[in-house]
Amino acid sequence: MEGLLIVLIPMFAGYLIKIKRQILLRHINRVSMLLLYIILLLMGISLGQLDNLAQQLPIIGISALTFACFTQGFNLIGLLSYDKLSPQPLKRAAQQTGSRLKLLFDSFKLCAMVALGFVVGYFSKGILFLPFGTSTYVLIALIFLVGIQLRNNGISLREVFFNSRGIYTGLIMVATSLLGGMVAALVLNLPVAQGLALASGLGWYSLSSVVLNDAWGPVFGSIAFVNDLSREILSLFLIPFLMPNYRSAAVGISGATALDCTLPVIQRSGGMEVVPLAISFGFVTNILPPLLLVFFTALPL
After folding, report:
1. CA 288: distance to chain centroid?
2. The predicted structure's pLDDT at residue 188
3. How far is 52 from 42, CA to CA, in rounded Å?
4. For the purposes of burial, counting CB atoms within 10 Å of the CB of 96, is it exposed (0-12), middle (13-18) or buried (19 or more)?
5. CA distances (Å), 189 to each of 170, 185, 212, 293, in order?
6. What is the spatial distance between Cα 83 and Cα 118, in angstroms, rounded to a whole number?
């Protein structure tokens, strides 16, 4: 319960704040990105200071790849089936998506922060000690700013509840992610609760990596980060391809990133007609990860 309040209170507190000055919103966006980099740096430091590190890295890579394959694969199966059963192709031709190289470079920078923290942690082992709960405090600040961004990106409760396709897309995406997490856990011989928790980030790597790092250590935090970041990278390629005929699959594969880094790709690929779907879907996939992560990490293994 305490973990749930730590996540939800700052988000809803931020959502209550209405900001009219665009320059202030731009500063908030910059601070949010800075806090994200700090979180990833801290996670890398924790990973670098692990005992028996050489034995842990293959586990991280294989586990993250397994979870990515099953969760995102099940997402596509479920969402493509929904689009087939309830087709809603674009009324207008897709627009040019622009260069995805810059977006991929942004993802590379996130990975680079973890790598930098890893190097710092590895060479400062026994010298540098992080205060307990440091990453959690940074996460609270980041979630507070995310709440402000949600409110000031024009996301109203009316818009969320009246876009049924966005809600259904979100629920299908969450259900298939959890199903994929259970299958991945069975394949890797992990407790089902851990599989469900690793699948619950839905692409929100800054949240999942910290929550799982605090719950089960930096190995699980790193698996969550790589798994959720891979969703963002994959979606940059799939969204333009899927959008003309499979709008729910195109939006749904992006997960929680539908409200931030992949929203411009969604809008450029599908135009304004898909923005309400993306907003309602993104709201669902940004509200549920804190609830799911706290719930599944509290279950006995």
Report:
1. 11
2. 97
3. 19
4. exposed
5. 28, 6, 18, 20
6. 42
- 67 burial type by CB count under 10 A (0-12 exposed, 13-18 middle, 19+ buried): buried
Q: How far is CA 199 from CA 40, 218, 223, 233, in A?
A: 19, 16, 10, 17
> Cα dist. 284→48, 166, 237 in Å?
34, 8, 23
Q: Which amino acid is at 12?
A: F
Q: Distance of alpha carbon 117 from its chain centroid, rounded?
A: 20
Are 251 and 163 a contacting pair, CB within 8 Å?
no
Residue at 229: amino acid letter: L
139-177 residue pLDDT tens? 788 878 877 877 786 656 566 557 889 999 999 999 999
Instruction: Write down the residue that tokens 């790849």 correspond to.
Output: 65
The pLDDT of residue 4 is 52
Type of residue found at 87: P
* 164 burial type by CB count under 10 A (0-12 exposed, 13-18 middle, 19+ buried): exposed
Low-confidence ranges of the chain (pLDDT < 70): 1-8, 51-53, 92-104, 106-107, 132, 153-161, 260-261
CB 40 within 8 A of CB 108: no
CA 115, CA 120: separation in Å to the nearest integer?
A: 9
State which amino acid sits at residue 283. Answer: F
Query: What is the Cβ-side half-sphere exposure of residue 74, based on CA atoms within 13 angstroms?
Result: 20
Residue with tokens 């897709």: 94
What is residue 200's three-state secondary structure? coil
| Tokens 């009316």 belong to residue | 158
pTM above 0.70, yes or no: yes
- What distance in Å separates the CA atoms of residue 225 and residue 114, rounded to the nearest whole number? 9
Return d(Cα 159, Cα 119) in angstroms, integer.
Answer: 45
Residue closest to 261 by CA, chosen among 284, 287, 290, 229: 229
